Amino acid sequence: MLQRAILSGELVPGQPLVETSMAEWCGVSRTPVREALSRLEQDGLVRRSEGGLVVRVRSPEEILDIYEVRMVLEATVGRVAAERRTDHDIRLLRHILERGKKVTPGDRAGMVEANQQFHRMVWRAGHNESLLDLLERLNLHLGRYPETTLTAPGRWAVALREHGELTDAIEQRRADDACRIAHAHFVGARDIRLALIAETPVAAG
């Protein structure tokens, strides 16, 4: 519940997270709240300040750091997927691609869902649990930035084209190409995300 509230913005950046208050708000005892806050701190969604735990503040520097890491991980998983993918993985990727092509640029929720499904399928095609865990954790951090890059003019068409190119490279076991395409895809996403952050007021903290 606390994680969902942070990701949705219900608990705002910089907001203090006092155990007693959070327990009352969630309608539970302090013990599960303490455990949840500890996990959220480990995941990097909250941080410890002089006054106690607070929701982590968003910043352009953080989003740049997140994308620098994500570019490396996504490039790596693209390479690994090309090396380890199964025929079943390719069938699923192709199916998700076709579903994505039916989503219009005006359908924000549809684009986000199709995009997440595609990238998670690439992760699974890598058959590397450590990489999958790292990417899921990183995805939590991105969840604190609800603005999607997919609504930028022309981005959805570019994303679909790059998804197709990445799928081709994975299917044909062109590991170097899969690595390059995945890296370039997230360089583009990072640049759009930074522009979105620059247009959004950031809380001080």
Helix/strand order, N-terminal first: HHHEEHHHHHH
How many beta-strand segments?
A: 2
Low-confidence stretches: none
Shape: elongated
Distance between the termini: 24 Å
Number of helices: 9
Mind telling me the CATH superfamily name of the largest domain? Answer: GntR ligand-binding domain-like
Strand order of the largest sheet: 1-2
CATH hierarchy class name of the largest domain: Mainly Alpha
The average pLDDT is 88
Bin the strand percentage. under 5%
Work out the count of structural domains: 2
Outline the fold blueprint.
Blueprint: H1 2-8, H2 19-26, H3 30-43, E1 46-49, E2 52-55, H4 60-84, H5 87-101, H6 108-125, H7 129-142, H8 155-171, H9 175-199
Antiparallel strand pairs: 1-2
Helix pairs in contact: 2-3, 4-6, 4-7, 4-8, 4-9, 5-6, 5-8, 6-8, 8-9
Structure description:
The structure is a single chain. The chain has a two-stranded antiparallel sheet. The chain has two domains: 2-55, Arc Repressor Mutant, subunit A; 60-199, Four Helix Bundle (Hemerythrin (Met), subunit A) (Up-down Bundle), CATH 1.20.120. It is built from nine helices and two strands; from the N terminus they run αααββαααααα. It is elongated, with a radius of gyration of 19 Å. Helix 4 (60-84) crosses helix 6, helix 4 (60-84) packs parallel to helix 8 (155-171) and helix 5 (87-101) runs antiparallel to helix 8 (155-171). The model has no long low-confidence stretch (mean pLDDT 88). By secondary structure, it is mainly α.
